[in-house]
Write a structure and sequence with these properties.
Blueprint lengths: L8 H9 L17 E2 L5 E5 L4 H6 L6 H12 L8 E4 L13 H18 L3 E5 L1 H7 L5 H4 L4 E3 L2 E6 L2 H5 L2 H11 L2 H13 L2
Parallel strand pairs: 2-3, 2-4, 4-6
Antiparallel strand pairs: 1-3, 5-6
Helix pairs in contact: 1-4
The chain binds uracil (URA).
The site of uracil (URA) has 13 residues, from helix 3.
Length: 194
């Protein structure tokens, strides 16, 4: 296997952009490494780039991205405060679910990003991202509940795209999102006392 350089976020992004990750199809225009504050306390991790993300090479810039930006505002955050990425870095054809081998191929890059940023809290957007961090759980049962797993604090949320088209899920996601500041405070409190 080709070696991967995980020495900095920039180096990781360059390798992703050069197509060293999952490469699900020849139609991929721009792999999407992710972007944001390299010292973010919170990382938001979605599923995979969609059409707009593939065109722009940036995460969450389509409709679900607009909704995510709005929700960040509702808890007093802007995109530049946090780091936003996906478990899979290239758009799967027709926006299909990522294959396990694509998730596996992107894993070193994602893990490298997490290791460098060292976020206090990882917010998973959608069940694929949740499955990566909390295998065996059901999003309908654990959404909005802070979990501790493999030495990480994980808050699983519904995916903004799912919530955009479903009124009750939208309110659930807004309510869950509103828990982010208290989850972060709780983690800081735990870290202080340990
Ligand atoms: N959906 C995702 O999961 N990620 C993106 O970047 C855009 C839409």
């Amino acid at each position: 296997m080709e070696s991967i350089d995980l020495s900095s976020l920039e180096v990781i992004a360059e390798q992703i952009k050069a197509g060293k990750c999952c490469k699900p199809s020849d139609d991929v225009k721009n792999p999407v490494p992710g972007e944001g504050n390299p010292k973010a306390e919170i990382m938001f991790i979605g599923e995979a780039p969609g059409l707009n993300e593939d065109l722009q090479g940036k995460p969450f810039v389509g409709n679900s991205g607009k909704f995510l930006t709005e929700m960040l505002g509702s808890v007093g955050l802007i995109r530049e405060d946090v780091f936003i990425t996906n478990i899979v870095k290239c758009r799967p054809p027709e926006n299909r679910d990522p294959f396990p081998e694509e998730i596996e191929a992107c894993k070193p890059f994602l893990e490298g990003q997490i290791a460098l940023i060292r976020p206090l809290l990882i917010v998973c957007l959608g069940r694929h991202s949740m499955n990566y961090f909390l295998p065996g759980f059901k999003i309908s049962e654990v959404h909005g509940r802070l979990k501790h797993s493999a030495n990480r604090y994980i808050l699983p949320l519904y995916h903004p795209a799912a919530a955009l088209h479903n009124g009750s899920l939208r309110q659930t996601l807004l309510d869950d999102f509103a828990k982010i500041p208290s989850a972060l405070n709780k983690i800081k409190e735990i870290n202080k006392n340990s």
